Amino acid sequence: MLIRLVLALSVVVVLIGVASAQETRAYANCLTPLKDAKPLLADHPEFIAPIEEAARFEAPMLVDDQGGDLHVRAWRFSYNARGIIEMPNCLQAANTAVIVVHPWGIDDGQGWKTPEPAGVCDFCTPTKNQLAARHTRQVINPFLKSLRGKVALIMYSLPGNEDTIRKKLYRSFTGKPTQQQREQGAKELKAKLNAFVYRGEPLPKQLTLSKNLPVVDYFQQFPGIDAGPRFNGAGYWDLPIPVTKDIEVDPDDVVIYDAAGYAPLKKFLQTKKVRHILLTGYATDMCYCRTTAGYERLSKDFNVFLVGDATLATFPANANPRCATTAAISYAALDHLVTQVSWVRYQTAKNK
Description:
Blueprint: H1 2-21, E1 32-33, E2 56-58, E3 70-72, E4 74-78, E5 83-87, E6 90-91, E7 96-101, H2 126-147, E8 153-158, H3 164-169, H4 179-195, H5 214-221, H6 229-232, E9 254-257, H7 262-271, E10 276-282, H8 287-290, H9 295-298, E11 303-312, H10 322-332, E12 337-339, E13 344-346
Parallel strand pairs: 2-5, 7-8, 7-10, 8-9, 10-11, 11-12
Antiparallel strand pairs: 1-2, 3-6, 3-13, 4-5
C-alpha cells in the first residue's frame, strides 16, 4: 500500500512538472505605430550602417520573467506587418548567457597569423582583421565586462576540438584549469603558434584557359577565396586557435568547441538553467548563424537575441563592413529578435 502511495505521488509530481513546463499565456499581438522613431543600430556607424524603415510599431512585452533584472528591448521585421516591430523584454540575468561566436586570435600578437603572401583567414586580409579587432575592443569587450558577474555565463565558440593546449588555457564543459595550468598553456600556445611557417604559394602567374569557356576556367583556377593548404600551408587549420587578446577573458568564462557539436552545448546550457542567449561575434553572414553556437541552432531551444552592433559581417570588395552587417542582420530579423548594446540594461529592483 505504501509503495503504491509513493508511486502515485511520484506520478502527480511528474504531471505537475509537465504542466508547469507547458504553461502558456495569451499574448496580445497589438501593434501600435511609433512616431518619429530614431534609427536602429546607430551607436557604432563605423561598423554598421543605421537602419531606417518607414513603418515602426510597438508591441507588448514578449519575455516577462518574474523578478527579471535584465531589460532587453528588441525588434524584428515582418513583411506581413509591413514594418519593424519593437518590444520590451524582461529577463532573469541568472538564466541568461552571453555567447561570442568565433572571436579568433588572429594577427593579434599571440602567434597565429594570416599566411603570406596570399593566405586567407577570418576576415580574409590582415587589414580587415585589424578592423575587426578594433570592433572587439570598442564594442564587444566592454559589453562583456558590463554583464560579467551578472549573467549566468560568458562563452566563446572556437573551431576544432578541445586540444591539450587549449584545455590548459580555458574553462570548458569538461573542466576548469588552475592558474598554473593556464600559465603552462600560454607558454605551449606561444611555442606552437610561433613554430609554424606562415607561408604558402604566391598567386598563379599563368592560367590555362579554353577558347569556349575562359570565364569558367578562370574562376576554377583562380577563385575569389581559397583558404586551403595551397595559400595557407598544410596544417594551418590544425593549429590551436585562441580567443583574441582583444577580449579580457575571465577564468570563469567558458569555451565552446565546434567539433563537439550542438548537443553538448545545449545540455550544458540547460544544466546551468540558461533560457536566454545574447548572441555576439563573427561573422554575421557565416559563422554567427551556421556554426555550433550559431543562431540557427540555438534559436530552436533558447530565447535568442542577436546583438546587432556586436557582430560584423564579412565585407568583400568593401573597405568597411557597415552595409554588409546591416544587410545580414536585417535578413536575420525576419525570424529572430535583434537588440543592441545600449538596449541591454541590468537593473535590479533596488536601482530602478
